[in-house]
Design goal:
Structural class: alpha+beta
Distance between the termini: 33 Å
Strand content: 15-25%
Strand order of the largest sheet: 1-2-3-7-4-5-6
Number of strands: 7
Shape: globular
Oligomer: single chain
Mean pLDDT: 79
Number of helices: 9
Largest sheet: 7 strands, antiparallel
Low-confidence stretches: 99-104, 201-207, 270-275
Order of helices and strands: HHHEHHEEHHHHEEEE
Length: 275
């Protein structure tokens, strides 16, 4: 990893997930070795997110002193029991308060993140034969100054495989009829799930996972939501007092064989000066 010069959080959580899977599935005492980035910032990220601990590589000579690195936290699990995402987010916010001396409210944020994780355990791994340890999620979070960010990753089958089982065929057919044949099928499946969730707002258990993922940002009123699944990506950018944004649909150049949901929200409160 010596040539890495920039780290995009969704990419970081995907790399951590893949490395974690390699370590857990290998019978070797040290199945991989990481050569850290030459970039000081990226090197600190590798230590802060425990990439080097995961690979058992020495990180004693790396000092964590960057304000844009020390707020990031990473965790993983296979369900929502025990020390789940809600408690984890509260610890992240508490750490940010301790360092930044600033009140951070996450009560309206973490339920949607928690729901996205719950959706992962319910739909991302539909094969009954998979052991529980294989049905994992990975969560990367940061509360820094005036911004909250979180990325949830799973290595499951993706939106394209799960939407036919969770959305009525009539809705699927009417939705697909609006698009040309050339549109990326993974991105189309993401967009389909989001639209179905939005159209079923207020109806119990209808499109709940996708609805809550988008509600995290729509209720907040401002910020960015990106959903990446296998070879497709859909991005929403919300602005204050603006209508629901049109999705930016993108086809990836490669299949990541994973699903990532990424939120980035400003936390500027009325009456508080921005940091």
């Amino acid at each position: 990893c010596s040539k890495i010069a920039h780290i995009y959080p969704p990419g970081a959580i995907l790399l951590y997930a893949e490395l974690n899977r390699i370590v857990e599935q290998s019978g070797l005492p040290k199945p991989l070795k990481i050569i850290p980035p030459q970039s000081d910032k990226c090197k600190q990220v590798f230590k802060q997110l425990e990439f080097l601990k995961l690979s058992q590589d020495d990180a004693t000579n790396i000092d964590l002193n960057r304000d844009d690195v020390i707020y990031w936290r990473c965790t993983t699990g296979s369900d929502q029991s025990g020390d789940g995402p809600g408690n984890f987010l509260e610890r992240v916010a508490g750490h940010a308060n301790e360092i930044a001396k600033r009140e951070v409210l996450i009560e309206n944020i973490w339920p949607g993140v928690s729901e996205a994780i719950n959706n992962t355990t319910e739909h991302a791994y539909p094969t009954p034969s998979l052991p529980t340890s294989s049905k994992k999620w990975w969560l990367l979070t940061s509360v820094r100054k005036n911004r909250f960010a979180a990325a949830v990753c799973d290595l499951g089958v993706g939106y394209r495989e799960t939407t036919p089982q969770t959305i009525p065929e009539r809705f699927v057919n009417s939705f697909k009829a609006k698009f040309s044949e050339g549109i990326n099928k993974d991105a189309l499946a993401i967009h389909l799930a989001m639209e179905y969730g939005r159209s079923r707002t207020g109806q119990k258990n209808r499109g709940k996972g996708s609805r809550d993922a988008q509600a995290v940002i729509s209720k907040h009123g401002e910020g960015e939501l990106v959903i990446i699944s296998h070879a497709g990506s859909v991005r929403y950018e919300y602005k204050i007092n603006k209508n629901t944004p049109k999705p930016e649909i993108t086809a990836l150049s490669t299949n990541i064989n994973a699903t990532i949901i990424w939120w980035s929200l400003p936390l500027t409160d009325e009456g508080n000066e921005s940091d």
